[in-house]
């Protein structure tokens, strides 16, 4: 219990430091949220600055913003004046969670079996072919994969829409695949390497010498310890999905948090960027806690260390 309480305090401190650093960096960047090619009259600029507290000292702005956040109010959006940041996140976060979650499930659902298949056929042509494909998937960035998928499946074959979001499975296929491909490739390579190491362990050689079948060796003795590195990889995989969602959502025109983050950063929408950073940071903290609990459940040594 004490360990989990310590982790909770550490998570809150991490979120506070992340938000504070983002607040300072946004204010230090050149330009402002209401800059335009044609300058507004001074009285209009003064009214806007007073409305959004931008005329106050930086420390005062930070104190008011932090107090609002502690009350659950992320403030108004500068770029979308008819909406608050809470409303924008409530509309966009579920879309990003659906796409990111499906991409991670696809990466695990295909990457783990492909990695196991390659490990069981190590050195054969099927293993080399799978690892070559995985290396290719890791080397091609998302901003190249996404347009290629649009070009092939939307423009060429006309099987799927090129962009937009209507909540249907057809509008989710290409974004999910674009997000999943690099993680799928890495998952396959990681599973193969880990399982090969486990299969070469002394206790498995002894079990094989006692006449146990290869299937029983794999499912009863090798698969669980072989998947521990894959479970530990889930945290950076989530970060990869989150960072890649900004590119993918821009390419496909999906109104998710990644797209709002990019637009907010370009337009100096301070409150929107800070709201997205806090939401993503909280999601990553929760995922890290879930991954640690899952690893402890799979590995008794970790469970004893956390007790």
Please describe what this structure looks like:
With 307 residues, the chain is mostly helical. The protein has a single domain, classed as Orthogonal Bundle (MetI-like fold), CATH 1.10.3720.10. It has 13 helices and no strands. The chain has helices at residues 2-28, 42-51, 58-70, 85-120, 125-139, 142-156, 169-199, 202-209, 214-226, 228-252, 257-266, 270-298, 300-306. Helix 4 crosses helix 10 (228-252) and helix 10 crosses helix 11. It starts with a helix and ends with a helix.
The helix/strand order is: HHHHHHHHHHHHH
CATH fold annotation = MetI-like fold
Mean pLDDT: 81
Beta-strand percent range: under 5%
Structural class: mainly alpha
- Our measurement of the CA-to-CA distance between the termini, rounded to an integer number of angstroms, reads 8 Å
Please identify which CATH superfamily we are dealing with.
MetI-like
Name the helicity range: over 70%
Which term fits the overall shape? Answer: globular
Number of strands: 0
Summarize the main sheet. Answer: none
Radius of gyration: 24 Å
What is the CATH-assigned architecture?
Orthogonal Bundle
- Just give the CATH class: Mainly Alpha
* Total number of helices: 13
Number of domains: 1
Low-confidence segments, ≥5 residues, pLDDT <50?
none
Keywords: Cell membrane, Membrane, Transmembrane, Transmembrane helix, Transport
InterPro entries: MetI-like, MetI-like_sf
Main location: membrane
Protein name: ABC transmembrane type-1 domain-containing protein
């Amino acid at each position: 219990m004490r360990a989990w309480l310590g982790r909770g305090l550490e998570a809150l401190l991490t979120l506070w430091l992340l938000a504070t650093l983002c607040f300072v960096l946004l204010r230090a960047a050149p330009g402002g949220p209401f800059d335009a090619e044609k300058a507004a009259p001074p009285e209009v600029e003064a009214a806007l600055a007073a409305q959004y507290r931008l005329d106050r000292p930086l420390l005062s702005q930070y104190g008011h913003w932090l107090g609002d956040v502690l009350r659950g109010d992320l403030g108004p959006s500068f770029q979308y004046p008819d909406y608050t940041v809470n409303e924008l996140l409530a509309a966009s976060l579920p879309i990003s969670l659906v796409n990111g979650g499906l991409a991670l499930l696809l990466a695990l659902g295909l990457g783990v079996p492909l990695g196991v298949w390659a490990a069981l056929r190590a050195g054969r042509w099927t293993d080399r072919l799978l690892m070559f494909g995985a290396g290719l998937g890791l080397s091609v960035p998302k901003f190249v994969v996404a347009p290629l998928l649009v070009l092939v499946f939307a423009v060429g074959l006309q099987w799927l829409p090129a962009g937009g979001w209507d909540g249907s499975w057809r509008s989710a296929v290409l974004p999910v695949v674009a997000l999943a491909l690099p993680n799928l490739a890495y998952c396959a390579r990681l599973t193969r390497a880990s399982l090969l190491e486990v299969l070469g362990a002394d206790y498995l050689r002894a079990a094989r010498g006692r006449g146990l079948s290869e299937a029983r060796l794999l499912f009863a003795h090798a698969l669980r310890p072989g998947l521990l590195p894959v479970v530990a990889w889930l945290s950076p995989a989530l970060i990869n999905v989150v960072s890649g969602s900004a590119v993918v959502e821009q390419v496909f025109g999906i109104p998710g948090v990644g797209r709002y983050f990019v637009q907010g950063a370009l337009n100096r929408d301070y409150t929107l960027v800070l709201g997205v950073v806090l939401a993503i940071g909280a999601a990553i903290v929760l995922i890290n806690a879930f991954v640690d609990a899952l690893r402890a459940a799979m590995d008794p040594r970790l469970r004893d260390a956390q007790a």
